[in-house]
Design a protein that fits this description.
By secondary structure, the protein is an alpha+beta fold. 26% of the residues lie in helices and 23% in strands. Helix 1 packs across helix 2 (50-59).
Length: 78
């Protein structure tokens, strides 16, 4: 979970683990500098640094993307 505040109205914005996973997996193959996040209070779009989103995703205990996970020797890759 990532807690930030809106840069316009200072309302709290909470990104769940699912939102973080969607942002990280949606950026595969790209190197974004920021992720757009819409404030639920004022509906304005805030830029959140992608490094901060990726760090929160890792700290949440979420598994890395499947490409980075090596397959076990005895198992066939699907």
């Amino acid at each position: 979970m990532l807690n930030i505040s809106c840069t316009y109205c200072r309302a709290p914005i909470n990104l769940s683990d699912g939102d973080l996973a969607q942002a990280v997996h949606g950026a595969e193959g790209k190197r974004p500098k920021s992720t757009p996040v819409t404030c639920p209070n004022c509906r304005r779009t805030n830029k959140v640094p992608f490094d901060r989103v990726r760090q929160a995703y890792r700290l949440a205990g979420s598994p890395p993307p499947e490409e980075a996970t090596p397959a076990a020797e005895g198992e066939a890759a699907v």
